[in-house]
Amino acid sequence: MENQIAKLVEWLQQKVKEANANGAIVGISGGIDSAVVTHLIKRAFPDQSLGLIMPCKSNPKDQEDALRVVESSGIDHYVTNLTETHQALFGEVEKQLQATGEWNEEKARLGDGNTRARLRMTTLYAVANNFNYLVVGTDNAAEWHTGYFTKYGDGGVDLVPLVHFTKGEVREMARLLGVPDEVIHKAPTAGLWEGQTDENEMGTTYNMIDKYLKGEEVPEQDRAVIERLHARSEHKRHLAAAPPKF
Question: Is 60 helix (H, G, I), strand (E, B) or coil?
């Protein structure tokens, strides 16, 4: 894994150079995946890397963990609270749709959560433009395969260094990089609404997805969930669809 880390650092440096960019930026959520990416870009660009902490109706514990990652990596960082911005944006959408009788309350939580993710990515790119940095994503192999990311939210990035690594491999990487134990062992969450956890929402566990991706046997119920998530999210792994030339 140490060799893999070294290769990832070299790859990040190469991709930034190819893009004629100056460095890299990542959103630090307080979770393990963003913590690993934070450490990776700090290694790749010691003086030209940046972490952005973006609370948005968030659990204060997430910001505390994000600051632990900042301290452990030594990365420069900013904190941009998006709570009021999100409320203004999503609140206006709700008001307009309610006025026409088209508001769908059953879809509200998902729309609210996805708007948070897309607002965070908009903020990352606004800061990235200022420094001429590339935006580095945090999705791992399990999330990529199942589509467990917001299209044009946390999935809307320039580079995805962890996309071939299982959750277990990301944990191994985190230990080697010096990610705080509190972050390594916390329950994975996208932070889209209070009490949300990845595994509860997906209907299976990262351990089962990791086994599936490695070709190992998993219970039929978990296999069915994983394959259904993969099929349903196929569009997320491609650029916007275009028709053939007529």
Answer: helix
